[in-house]
Amino acid sequence: MLLHCDGGSISVMRARPVSTIGTAVAVLVAAGGLFLSYGASPSSFTSERTPGLRQLALLYLDEPAPLLDQLDFTPGQPLLLVVCQGCQPPEVDAQVMTTADDVIAEAYALRAADGTVGPGYAVIDPEGHVRYRTFDPRVTRNADEIRVLVNAVR
């Protein structure tokens, strides 16, 4: 029921119910459109491990990378900065630098609350901006996920 006020008089009107079928069709059309636009999006990538599996990389940062002059960074190529003590970096198609330096770990917010360095990594795009950063105790074992992120910043 709806109340309608017109000048000085108030009238009661019955609202027409929305068709259940019409609502279902609208939801399906919207969902189909989202699915099709995702598949065509350059933000979706095919997994190297499972052909045909689509993945989406969320690049939530876009800030100038600190201390680039202290890193082995060549503009025009992405850089995977692995911050940890005694770990092996994953094999990715990008520049890779591994460090346990306290200053670099602090600058990239990859020092734990107890002062330990990492383990974690940052993905720096070819222009020198940090696009992704995370603590990751399984850096070497998560190479597929890291490849998706590195490929996203090319």
Helix content: 10-25%
Q: Sketch the topology as an H/E string, one letter per element.
A: EEHEEEEEHEEH
Number of strands: 9
CATH superfamily of the largest domain: Glutaredoxin
CATH class of the largest domain: Alpha Beta
What is the fold-level CATH name, i.e. the topology of the largest domain? Answer: Glutaredoxin
Mean pLDDT: 76
As for the number of domains, it is 2
Q: Give the CATH architecture of the largest domain.
A: 3-Layer(aba) Sandwich
Indicate the low-confidence ranges by residue numbers: 34-47
Please characterize this protein's 3D structure.
The protein is α+β, with helices and mostly antiparallel strands. The chain has two domains: 2-55, no CATH class; 58-152, Glutaredoxin (3-Layer(aba) Sandwich). It contains three helices and nine strands, in the order ββαβββββαββα. It has helices at residues 20-39, 102-107, 143-152, and strands at residues 2-6, 9-13, 44-46, 54-56, 63-64, 79-83, 95-99, 120-124, 129-135. The protein has a five-stranded mixed beta sheet, covered by helices on one side. Strands 1-2 form a two-stranded antiparallel sheet. Strands 3-4 form a two-stranded antiparallel sheet. The longest helix has 20 residues, at 20-39. The chain is globular. It starts with a strand and ends with a helix.
Key structural traits:
alpha+beta; globular; single chain; two-stranded antiparallel sheet; 154 residues
